[in-house]
Write a structure and sequence with these properties.
The chain is an alpha+beta fold. The protein is built from ten helices and four strands, in the order H-H-E-H-E-H-H-E-H-E-H-H-H-H. The chain has two domains: about 180 residues, no CATH class; about 100 residues, Alpha-Beta Plaits (2-Layer Sandwich), CATH 3.30.70. A four-stranded antiparallel β-sheet has the order 2-3-1-4. The protein is elongated and about 100 Å long.
Length: about 325
Amino acid sequence: MSRRRRKPGFRRRLSLSAWLTRHAQVFLASLGRLARRPLGSLMTLAVLGIAMALPLGLHLLVGNLQQLAAGWDGAASISLFLREDVDQEQAEKLVKTLQARPDIGQVRHITPEQAMAEFRQHSGFGDALDLLDSNPLPHVLLARPANPDMGAAQVEALLAELKALPWVDLALADLQWVERFQGINRILQRTALLLALLLALAVLLIIGNTIRLEIHSRREEIEIIKLVGGSNAFIRRPFLYEGFWYGLLGGLIAIFLVWTAALALEGPVEHLAELYQSRFRLGGLDLATAATVLGLGILLGVLGAWTAVSQHLGAIEPGS
């Protein structure tokens, strides 16, 4: 009795093991077919890799531009020039008042001495400045809004409030270049999205056409499999795995191309940033983005293979 009770479970385990074994065999065999025609497979994979690398590189460019805009010292900041009669204690008190506001993120206090030292360093008029009897520069407060995406109208309203504060003589916020920069960034984002959609369609067509040619080259084999009772699912399986490999390897090539390009540009970008006294560093691909690229590549590969097989497999019948 105990043996009979174990028998159905044993059969299910055996059936599952056989099913996994068959899939593993077809999975590796599909990779072997790509390896048996290295030149054709490499050319197809290179085209797929370039097609995936273009939107990925543009996405990386947009991300670095956003990082550059967020880290720029003068981006979306308001300069408050205090009156000449304001002393250090009053300026610090105003700094604490600004820091307590929920709409202000950061406040930087530049003393007259710091401003004079910076002006002396960058202006080249050190000898002329020594002739001054006193330091004419006032205390300056640089206030950055808490919301970096604050619109121009909101910044203007905040500017009017800060200008009305005591001890403030002049308040300035030049956001024109920031608005232009954000506009360019939005255009690049939209371009990256459109390019990704177009090239995703191109990847589908490339993989679908490649699988279609593979189906035609194996037409006699498919007819024989159907003669001996092979199902469409059995015939479809190796082509789907082949699409899987095309998507995976094409995604890996795209990641390699973008990584190589970022590595080649890293040195020149760091040198340019140092010339502008910036700590900006070119950001590369993170694991999440790389995993997304591989996942989308596999999805496009399997979808393209499924479309091609569904269109052409039904037309192949023994004796047709």
